[in-house]
Specification:
Elements lengths: L2 E8 L7 H13 L5 E6 L5 H4 L6 E5 L7 H7 L3 H5 L4 E7 L3 E3 L4 H5 L5 E3 L6 H6 L2 H6 L3 H9 L6 E5 H10 L1 H8 L7 H9 L12 H7 E3 L12 E3 L10 H4 L6
Parallel strand pairs: 1-2, 1-4, 2-3, 8-9
Antiparallel strand pairs: 4-7, 5-9, 6-7
Helix pairs in contact: 10-11
């Protein structure tokens, strides 16, 4: 019988900073009932990670995919990547710029969606790019890059493995183009958001309202309202200024 979900933590630079270490520690504690698997390159020194859990599970991929976040996007657009986790139905990709507020992972796996991710940081231009016209006609190269920038530090998503693989197979030409675009930040997010369902609904995705209940940028939350499952956009440069973290006891 398959596992319902596994948590995947990418490690691009093993020299994680104190903020990333805090996010890692919280991830391991909050999601300890699920398999947590680290992905990185062969030979990566994970001694800092092992200080939090000596018996970690690691799956290695070619080093070229861990040179930058743009390079990692190429891996997250490969059928082989999802095939490696065929023992489970869902993956929660949890980069070390995200924080799970409470364990609702089982709930979200059971909601019938294939792809859940916090929305991009919006301004008038991004709203235009994310509109119905762009979703039908597609984006130009410069628009794709601008849209990708709106996903900067947006590092958590839940996906159904089978549907991700089927979408990649159905859109091989488009996936290849996204995977091989040079210096394209968050090409994976742009593909899954804008390209995957063009002309045919390959992925069941939530409305914007539901998506915001799944995850939001930590800078955008209202502490007086119900918080989402997860927060993202958390960096060493901003963690001490975010209202959510100011409200936590120092031990957290």
């Amino acid at each position: 019988m398959k596992e319902l979900v596994s948590v995947i933590v990418p490690i691009l630079d093993p020299e994680i900073n104190p903020t990333e270490e805090r996010l890692l520690h919280h991830c391991l504690n909050m999601l300890d009932k699920y398999p947590v698997i680290f992905i990185t390159f062969e030979g990566a020194d994970l001694s800092i990670v092992k200080e939090h859990n000596e018996d970690i599970d690691v799956i290695y991929f070619p080093k070229k995919y861990f040179q930058s976040r743009a390079a990692l996007a190429g891996l997250l657009l490969m059928e082989d990547f999802y095939d490696r986790f065929s023992w489970c139905d869902f993956l929660l990709i949890h980069e070390l710029n995200s924080w799970v507020v409470r364990d609702e992972l089982y709930y979200w796996c059971k909601q019938g969606y294939d792809y859940l991710k916090a929305g991009p940081l919006e301004d008038d231009n991004i709203k235009r790019l994310a509109g119905v016209v762009s979703r039908i006609s597609g984006l130009k190269e410069d628009e794709k890059r601008a849209f990708g920038q709106a996903y900067a530090n947006n590092g958590i998503y839940l996906c159904r493995i089978e549907r991700m693989i089927n979408t990649i197979k159905a859109k091989q030409k488009e996936v290849y183009t996204y995977r091989h675009s040079e210096d394209f930040l968050h090409a994976d997010s742009v593909f899954w958001d804008m390209e995957a369902n063009r002309f045919w609904p390959h992925l069941r995705k939530p409305t914007a309202i539901v998506r915001n209940h799944f995850a939001m940028d930590a800078a955008n939350i209202n502490l007086n309202k119900t918080l989402p499952f997860a927060l993202t956009g958390i960096l060493k440069e901003n963690i001490h200024h975010l209202p959510y973290f100011k409200s936590l006891p120092e031990a957290d």
